[in-house]
């Protein structure tokens, strides 16, 4: 009987907590680095929570795979990136936002001088973007820049960045539960 009561209390608390404010989704990013002739793909599922009409919090769990165009060397990375998103403008179906966050990554790379270079990396920064409402509970999402600092994060270059580039383009879907 105790288990049933605990289960019902848990179910009630989750349903009253969410009220259509929890969302899941993900992003896919494709990149090509001309200097090094390397292509990459990044897949990052996410879970988030709308605190109110202006603020969201959540986290991405990502996987990235890179390969040089000869097919000789490859790399993979796993990442975890919590975020806070500020929605600063909403007009009709469109919503503009800025996402601030920090990310941690672990990479196993064959691109460096060392055969298997295992690296821990991080990033801290802002990513502007927008969403487009496709349905009552489904939104298309796009982020198109990174402004911040990266050190060995995934396979991005290190240092401060403030660029708008297609290599920083992430596209995704968000589904409210």
Radius of gyration: 19 Å
> Widest sheet: strand order?
1-2-3-4-5-6-7-10
Name of the CATH first level: Mainly Beta
Structural class: mainly beta
Tell me the strand percentage band. over 45%
N-to-C span? 29 Å
Low-confidence stretches: none
Per the CATH scheme, the topology name is Porin
Question: Helix content range of the residues, please?
Answer: under 10%
Mean pLDDT: 82
Oligomerization status of the protein chains = single chain
Tell me the CATH architecture: Beta Barrel
Q: Main sheet, how many strands, which sense, barrel?
A: 8 strands, antiparallel, barrel
Task: Give the overall silhouette.
Answer: globular
Count the domains.
1
The H/E string reads HEEEEEEEEEE
- Count of beta strands: 10
How many H/I helical runs? 1
